[in-house]
Amino acid sequence: MTNTTPYPHLLSPLDLGFTTLQNRVLMGSMHTGLEEEPQGFKKLAAFYEARAKGDVGLIVTGGISPNFRGRVAPMGSELSKFWHVNKHKAITDAVHKYPTKICLQLLHTGRYAYHPFSVSASAIKAPINPFKPKALSERKIHSTIKDFAKSSKLAQEAGYDGVEIMGSEGYLINQFSCKRTNHRTDKWGGSIENRMRLGVEIVKAVREKVGKNFIIIFRLSLLDLVEGGNTWDEIVTMAKAIEAAGATIINTGIGWHEARVPTIATSVPRAAFTWVTKRLMGEVNVPLVATNRINMPDVAERVLAEGHSDMVSMARPFLADPDFVNKAAAGQADDINTCIGCNQACLDHVFEQKRATCLVNPQACYETELTFAKTPEPKNIAVIGAGPAGLAFSCYAAQRGHKVTLFDGASEIGGQFNYAKQVPGKEEFFETLRYFKRQLEEHNVDVHLDSYQDVESLRTRGYDELVFATGINPRTPNIPGINHPKVLSYLDVLKHHQPVGKKVAIIGAGGIGFDVATYLVEQESLTTNQQRWLKAWGIDTEYQNPGALLPIDHDLKHDREIYLMQRKETKVGANLGKTTGWIHRNTLKNHHVNMVPGVHYEQINDQGLVYSLQGEKKVLEVDNVIVCAGQESNDSLYQQLKDLGENCHLIGGADVAAELDAKRAIRQGAELAATI
Ligand code: FAD
Ligand code: NAP
Ligand code: SF4
């Protein structure tokens, strides 16, 4: 590539001596769940091939254990026997049809293993895992090192270009390197030289086994973000020793899984952690990789141009768009389907032991199952509603060759996403609407905004099929006084921007109740102010303390008093996303929002909200009561036209409003488009 490309740093090759990467983009390791599915490796091969076709420089696979005890879960994947090799060849053959290189990640989970056979440096249970590990004996440490070397050799035989040794995120090697989890008194504990010995000996053993011309990436934890983590001096010492032991590349690890600091959620500012990789630049000679919340080519280019690293790692952005690099190289960044950092279909799925996919790209990990072949019989289709469901359907159906006309009564596309994107920390939702707008243009969808549809307008036009994506109506709970002037709906606040008083009760603590509370307390989004965000979450950029932690800033100032209420007795926010719910809860806690479960709403009157709690009547004297009490399907138009004998389909919130999210809306739109 020459400097005429739009992203000269990102797209320049990287010479590793014995091999050259075509660009500076590393697709970071992601466990997809396909690793454990029957026929999963064929689907994995298609998944990785699509990313190689999209010109990623270097792919790192999801973590595969070098032995039984290191597996993520009892049925987790392992590469330790010669008969494991063949299925990996399907992946390497598929990727090597293109110039992309691929490394297998070797992951020993240590005390994060979700089974009773787990091991660690010391017998200390992780706070996020019920299983207590056994401390590895000296003999078992040596056999673990041998297992890493053997797996690497098998990976080489399977056609991989290298391995990544997972030494961060609080997994086994990281458990040895930190005092938090390593209380040993033998030569594997105590001084940093002893604590880092496991990682260093693994790299040495692997290098000895695989020879010179094989990539060894070591993922080193540059920020543990837990008490008892490593100091900066220790990290520099480790990096130098890892390089001397034979690593080719050092990748950055940020935060243990048990850390109570968000590291990849959508509310984390873009490229929030690359400063720590920059700190290591110049301490070692091997290329360094920066990571976390880099999701667009301009962000990646800036990281490299400002000397924060030699490569960038992006993982979820390649679930969202396999053609990220191609599009960047063609100067079409606007066409990139941007990862919005929601975790809803990727990490949340993995934690629920479901196959990973992507909220904005339902084809991810379904490359062989959800396809959009050209239709032999193009149809004339009207879509009513340009929210996520209608947008997804329209774009995929038009891509297949159907003639699609999309109507929305609103003046802009996006439906409820237009309210979501205003919530502090959800700025990324803008990107999805930018992407859909481009797709509508690209596939010649005929878009009519400010165009509310009714029975007559649709019946007279002679469409072959009508697709209703008309969304929802907010639920109005049956509480005496619900029409009192103090009462606002979440749409009054987020859509009509009606003034809200200083003391507020929010009825309903689902996703929208949390978002409205965040909107009311975070006058300036922390996500767009990196320094304030780092301070708010207690991240020590000066690295004065082990683990780089400072006390969390619990004194985030705002001038409102907010009560977030629900009828259920359970913890407020218990049903939020698995990997992000704790962040929403902590954000509101740090802003002193009062969470009130187990209430019975009695009345809304001039005084405020009257409710009872454990049989005791209370009056909350508030200026406003904001209703966020869930949603009901807006399907009446569909019912009427169906009754008139039209060919009708119903998708998204209009179909089922309960527990509706954009993930379901977009997938349902895509699945209908694939078959219509
Ligand atoms: P909608 O988005 O409701 O779109 C329906 C569209 O139909 C509207 O644009 C409407 O104008 C149009 N319409 C209706 N009737 C007619 C008619 N007769 N003629 C023409 N047009 C019509 N989901 C997540 O997954 N993650 C989140 O983090 C998240 N955060 C959210 C935050 C907020 C504040 C809100 C309000 C929602 C959030 N959601 C989130 C929910 C998500 O936005 C919805 O699940 C999704 O928008 C539903 O998509 P849909 O296409 O079914 O309906
Ligand atoms: P929701 O998650 O179903 O929450 C509705 C809330 O209202 C609950 O707290 C419920 O609690 C309460 N409620 C329900 N019926 C009520 C009634 N009759 N009277 C009083 N309270 C009532 O719905 P939502 O918050 O409107 O969100 C809609 C969808 O958008 C969600 O399903 C979610 O998936 C999606 N969303 C996701 C996110 C995210 O971050 N992933 C963010 C926003 C929205 P009680 O019944 O206990 O009172
Ligand atoms: Fe990114 Fe959300 Fe897709 Fe995961 S599900 S890859 S976080 S957009």
UniProtKB/TrEMBL annotation:
Keyword tags: Flavoprotein, FMN, Iron, Iron-sulfur, Metal-binding, Oxidoreductase
Domain FAD/NAD(P)-binding as annotated: residue spans: 380-643
Residue ranges of domain NADH:flavin oxidoreductase/NADH oxidase N-terminal in the record: 10-334
Requisite cofactors: [4Fe-4S] cluster; FMN
Sample GO molecular function, one term: 2,4-dienoyl-CoA reductase (NADPH) activity
GO BP: fatty acid beta-oxidation, unsaturated, even number, reductase/isomerase pathway
Entry keyword Flavoprotein: yes
Keyword Oxidoreductase in record: yes
InterPro entries named in the record: Aldolase_TIM, FAD/NAD-bd_sf, FAD/NAD-binding_dom, NADH:flavin_oxidoreductase, OxRdtase_FMN_N
UniProt family annotation: In the N-terminal section; belongs to the NADH:flavin oxidoreductase/NADH oxidase family.
Protein name, as recorded: NADPH-dependent 2,4-dienoyl-CoA reductase
Species this protein is from: Thalassotalea mangrovi
